[in-house]
Amino acid sequence: MRIIITIALFVATLVSAQGVEAQNGYISQQDSLLQDYDYFFSQLEQIHPDPYSAFDGKDGFDKAVKQLRNELANRDSLTLNEMQVEVTKLISALHDGHTYIGYDKAPKKVEDQWVPLKFKVIPKGIIVNGYTPELESLKGAMLCQVEGEPLESVLDRLDKLVVSENRYGLMGNACRNIGNTNTLRQLFPTFNKEQVSMKFRMANGKDTLVSLPFTLYGHLLMNVSHIRTSNTASSMTANKRW
Length: 242
What we know:
Elements: E1 2-7, E2 10-15, E3 20-22, E4 25-27, H1 29-47, H2 58-73, H3 80-91, E5 99-103, E6 113-114, E7 117-122, E8 125-131, E9 142-146, E10 149-150, H4 151-159, H5 167-177, H6 181-187, E11 195-201, E12 207-213, E13 215-216, H7 217-221, E14 228-229, H8 235-240
Antiparallel strand pairs: 1-2, 1-5, 3-4, 6-13, 7-8, 8-14, 9-10, 9-11, 11-12
């Protein structure tokens, strides 16, 4: 398996991860992933124009990188997805959308599920821009809370999990992922439910609390005719992305 490291316009690859044969024997998946970790951050230091300021200097950067590596090394096991999540949390401090770590054949999260809504960024916040027929009443409603947390607090949490260059980019990421089960588990570590609670502000100014069920991403792709968007001119393009 290869790891893809993108720093600005630079792309590097290396062999990794399912456990590989070395000259002196077998290297475990965890050790192989830690080699990827070391390589990623060595390249980051060489290529990124400013990897240190977000960590208050090189000493802070080195400390943060070492601390996370030790934490990963001390785990009983380590998967591709787990390392990618943890590294993304660390480098999110850079607020650089061109810097991320990813694997070309990382296993898919088979448990990925989504709420039956689409969201859109507007100057005042995030609104519902697509919905299944039974949720048509939420058309244009503004998202206010997720699991009882104000949207601003949720965005602050998300900012520590994803790489985004600015607030608008962060909100765009929220539109794509805030209804995803895996993202919700990262935002709310104890989250383990079949529905998510979201509060919306309706056009009449009243707030509505809704419990939204999850459905498989692939299922929605196969049933795009059941998803409506508030902008009919762009509905086909939007639906294909679902």
